[in-house]
């Protein structure tokens, strides 16, 4: 409801390692190798760079400001409609090992379908071992992860 | 256990230092003012931007247009004020398209004020907004550091303004002509520039009347005389 356009200086860590870090056959036991090595919670929470929280939340904050402006201009129906369209367009799913979702309709809705950035060239998917395994993703999607 | 206060806290660890610039920021230590006259409003500013003792830009333009005849003077952090002015500029264009009429100065000042107050802990921005519209004629609004909104006949701001309160009180008149008001703003800013180390350079002005917006510039080597072109 407010026009805050500067991201807060602190943030709760938005990525929790839970899904990838559980051992395959015994899901309540943490799997250190899958989680990327022995790390402590203290090291992930402390000694962050002062700009890290700000940058991580930058796009979200600008989006929120834009939605707040639209809400004041056109009413909450405009914001609700845009959220609904994004949700519908995000329903294409492909496993990460097969390239990940194409986001074709999402790109059009966000207005970036005619834009190419570094993230489209260097997608970060060159190391297949760092991405979720095909079987793990399929089991999660089919709710087979007891 | 003693720990040094960080960030915006002053040395006692309790009070917030509102003048504090964030690391690497450029300071618009400044003299800005806006004044009403009979038929419009004039904005004026010096042109010095400093990073500490170094003058980063000696011909800065601190008078920013946010709509055809609504302008603002910026003081404080250059980055913060530019970001705020950009958001307001975008929003006023949208207002114009949606409502088929230009926004009033009061609308612009309200948006500025809400942005400054909602983000007051992260911003250091002192603004003076002035505009001319046909219904309300000229209007001047001042938004100091905390994000309060003050409608005034004339407003002064920035670090150099502290030296010219007396001058402005003595020389201000209601319903001046355009020429008298130009001389008033020019004289006040020349005095501020004389005493304040963070103000200097040229004196820029914008005159807002029913004719629209006219920019003027006065140079120190000509003693700020000259016709403003």
Automatic annotation (TrEMBL), chain A:
Q: Which GO terms describe its biological process?
A: proteasome assembly
Q: Where is this region: Disordered?
A: 1-23
For whether the record's keyword set contains Protein transport, the answer is no
- Where along the chain is composition biased (Low complexity)? 7-23
> Does the entry feature the keyword Flavoprotein, yes or no?
no
Q: Which domain of life is it from?
A: Eukaryota
Task: Provide one Gene Ontology cellular component.
Answer: nucleus
**Pfam family name, one:** UMP1
Matching InterPro entries: Ump1
Entry keywords, A to Z = Chaperone, Proteasome
Q: Which family does it belong to?
A: Belongs to the POMP/UMP1 family.
Question: What protein name applies here?
Answer: Proteasome maturation factor UMP1
User: What are the leading ranks of the lineage?
Assistant: Eukaryota, Fungi, Dikarya, Ascomycota, Pezizomycotina
UniProtKB/TrEMBL annotation, chain B:
Q: What start-end ranges are recorded for coiled-coil regions in this protein?
A: none
Q: Where is the active site?
A: 30
Against InterPro entries, the record matches this protein to: Ntn_hydrolases_N, Pept_T1A_subB, Proteasome_sua/b, Proteasome_suB-type
Return the broad EC class.
hydrolase
The record's annotation in SUPFAM superfamilies points to:
N-terminal nucleophile aminohydrolases (Ntn hydrolases)
Q: What is its EC number?
A: 3.4.25.1
Q: Name one GO biological process term.
A: proteolysis involved in protein catabolic process
Q: Which reaction does it catalyse?
A: Cleavage of peptide bonds with very broad specificity
Q: Which CDD domains match?
A: proteasome_beta_type_6
Record key words, sorted: Cytoplasm, Hydrolase, Nucleus, Protease, Proteasome, Threonine protease, Zymogen
Pfam families named among the record's database cross-references = Proteasome (PF00227)
Compartment list: Nucleus
GO molecular function per UniProt: threonine-type endopeptidase activity
- What is one cellular component GO term in this UniProt entry? nucleus
The UniProt subunit note reads as follows: The 26S proteasome consists of a 20S proteasome core and two 19S regulatory subunits. The 20S proteasome core is composed of 28 subunits that are arranged in four stacked rings, resulting in a barrel-shaped structure. The two end rings are each formed by seven alpha subunits, and the two central rings are each formed by seven beta subunits. The catalytic chamber with the active sites is on the inside of the barrel.
What is the protein's name according to its record? Answer: proteasome endopeptidase complex
Q: State the species of origin.
A: Tuber borchii (White truffle)
